[in-house]
Amino acid sequence: MIEIVVVSGKGGTGKTTITSSLALLANKNGFKMVAADTDVDAPNLALILKGEVISKKTIQVSEKAFIDRKKCNDCGKCMEVCKFDAIRKNAEGYAVNRLYCEGCGLCQIVCPVNAVNIKPIDNGEITILKTSSGFPMVMGHLMIGESGSGKVVAEVKEAARKLAKEVNAELLIIDGPPGSGCAAIASISGADFVVTVTEPTMAAKHDVDRMISIVKHFGIPFGVVINKFDIFLEMTSELRRYAKEVGGIVLGEVPADESVVRAVVNNMSVVEYDPSSPASKALVGVFDRMVGVLNSGGLAP
């Protein structure tokens, strides 16, 4: 099985739009596959691929402090040592604000009467769906106000890999989180190939540069897709030069196309909404080029 992760250095570059198209094209071309959405802060791949929920489970990847009021003697030592301002005294005594608590455990250590306990908490969900195209998809999301998105991403990837193994999938195509933080790093960990999506703007170039530095740190081969390439041709030329300089392969250039907007409005992939549109044809070229790169690198299933 080949694991492909689609990332971008910033939000709004069209990462999920391109991921959905690659997944549908892989399915159309006969690849046995599984898709996954690891953008756990705002998962929306299922809006495009659609699907029926097969299963859902809550996961626990972090811990919080809890104060047992029956044991607490209101000495206040826990509040004194808390570096996150998560413990305050109210009318009933000392209590933990779970939105601030990082579960470091220092309050538990200093409590003289063992009134503080560090416990796992529910902070994410993993959902498995059967998409309208027939292939399965794994989706994760972080619960409101919770932390630990990188850990939730790791759990989602593990669930996706397990499912891919169960169905003997040839491809696992993952929609990664935007940016280059912990969640994005967790999404590319262990991948066989990374597709970086960018656009011809200074902000996008700056952010994709950070993303590619992470990919190169892990030694993962990667390709670059330049979305809306025709809005600033001078910067597109610069991105082509940059991709070659850092050892990447330009998988393709997708034009700015109104059909993409109409497809998004209708919760559809552009290759499904209008196969004859310029953007759709470009995405077919991106997919073919990606398969060719995988073949030439001995990675193809």
Key phrases:
301 residues; Rossmann fold; nine-stranded mixed beta sheet; alpha/beta; Alpha-Beta Plaits; 2 domains; elongated; single chain; two-stranded antiparallel ribbon; 11 helices
Describe the structure.
The termini are close together. It contains 11 helices and 13 strands. The longest helix is centred in the last third of the chain and has 19 residues, at 278-296. A 9-stranded mixed beta sheet has the order 3-8-9-2-10-1-11-12-13, with helices on both faces. Helix 7 (202-217) links the parallel strand 11 and strand 12 (222-227). It is 38% helix and 27% strand. Helix 1 (15-28) crosses helix 11 (278-296) and helix 5 runs parallel beside helix 6.
Indicate the topology.
Blueprint: E1 2-8, H1 15-28, E2 33-37, H2 45-49, E3 51-59, E4 62-67, H3 77-81, E5 87-90, E6 93-96, H4 106-110, E7 116-121, E8 124-131, E9 136-142, H5 149-166, E10 171-178, H6 182-188, E11 193-198, H7 202-217, E12 222-227, H8 233-245, E13 249-254, H9 258-265, H10 270-273, H11 278-296
Parallel strand pairs: 1-10, 1-11, 2-9, 2-10, 11-12, 12-13
Antiparallel strand pairs: 3-8, 4-7, 5-6, 8-9
Q: What can be said about this structure in brief?
A:
The chain has helices at residues 15-28, 45-49, 77-81, 106-110, 149-166, 182-188, 202-217, 233-245, 258-265, 270-273, 278-296; strands at 2-8, 33-37, 51-59, 62-67, 87-90, 93-96, 116-121, 124-131, 136-142, 171-178, 193-198, 222-227, 249-254. By secondary structure, it is α/β, with parallel strands linked by helices.
